[in-house]
Amino acid sequence: MPVEIRELGKDKRRLRDFLDVVDGIYEGDPSYVRPLDLEISDKLDPKKNPFFEHAEGTAWVAYRDGRPVGRITAQIDHEHLRRHQDEAWFFGYLDTIDDPEVAAQLLDEAGRWLKSRGMKKLRGPFSLSINEELGCLVDGFDRPPMIMMPHHRPYQAGLIERAGLTKLKDFYAWRYTPGEVPIRAQRAHDEIAAMPEVQVRQVNPNDVSNELAIIMDIFNDAWSDNWGFVPATKSELEKAAQDLKLVLLPEITRIVSIDGQPVAVAMGLPNLNELIRDFRGKLGPAEIVKLLYRLKVRGPTSGRLYILGIKKKFRAIRKYGGLSAYLFVAMNRSAHLLGMTDAELSWTVEDNAPINVAIKLMGGRVYKTYRVFERPLA
């Protein structure tokens, strides 16, 4: 049967197909955790997602014989274009059955939409931006993804390549065990902790909006030279603050100040995927009760360190060279005290040698690899 590609538009039944298509694609995959439907539908809604204040996009569902067999989005981030001027933008949420025709037609549809708006490169997957989920999983299929990290079938990358896209960058997720701290890292932690001008505190859960502004000010400075970096807008920060209130655990956050000036940050999140595996994307009253119990009473056993940054000015000062080790050790210790037995640091770019070497020295090991692909729009 031929493949039919239908644009999402405002059709609620098609949105339901966009959300539910993953059930068939990932059936029998023990590592797959279905994201919450509410989270995805809100991300796709320009009225609810501040990303669309500086971006435009659309989505499609692929059908064969009337049955949904794949999905994709295409989006243009004008903030990215303003900053990088590379005439490239993204596809995302690519999930398909193991069928080259389905994947190729979805990617071609996204490419046509982007080309009609002046783009010259098709790049992805990004769901929806580089500050959210990125890449197609190409290694590490045997373990479930952490919060805000994607998961794919082993065949998905091959289908992308057969559609004419080639590797652009790989990104690493690092696994480490809370409680295990190399002696060298502990020594660096203790040296920083002994400096009288250094103050450290946890994020205040009662003032998340202002705290997040401090965090993102540090993050935007620390990550500004990283590949593909786009700073979050004020509206995006406000939305993130609302979303984080429920899952924030202050114990796995740190803000470091030197002489009263915030200069470094580390922020971990409890692994929401661990807590919602049996929800199948739903978040009704019963699921909310279960989630709150699992998060606040039972407690998660895994978490993700997803922000760690030091302002560039202070990275250049030799006496503060141990700040990253200080943050790692402090976060590691707190995660251990919370009862976490599994942790991830993600993501890092494959060619960021200084960061990757430092993580190795602190006991991290790459256990998942995500790939971003690209092709010219002819």
Question: How would you sum up this structure, described in words?
Answer:
- With 378 residues, the protein is an alpha+beta fold.
- It folds into two domains: 3-173, Aminopeptidase (3-Layer(aba) Sandwich); 178-340, Gcn5-related N-acetyltransferase (GNAT) (Aminopeptidase, 3-Layer(aba) Sandwich).
- Helices cover 37% and strands 28% of the residues.
- The protein has helices at 12-25, 37-44, 78-84, 100-115, 156-162, 183-193, 208-222, 234-247, 272-275, 285-298, 312-315, 323-337, 353-361; strands spanning 3-7, 55-64, 67-77, 88-96, 121-124, 126-127, 133-134, 136-139, 166-176, 198-201, 253-258, 261-270, 302-310, 342-349, 365-376.
- The strands form two sheets. Strands 1, 2, 3, 4, 5, 8, 9, 10, 11, 12, 13, 14 and 15 form a 13-stranded mixed sheet that branches. Strands 6-7 form a two-stranded antiparallel ribbon.
- It is globular, with a radius of gyration of 21 Å.
- The model has no long low-confidence stretch (mean pLDDT 94).
Pick out its properties.
378 residues, alpha+beta, Aminopeptidase, 13-stranded mixed β-sheet, 15 strands, 37% helix, globular
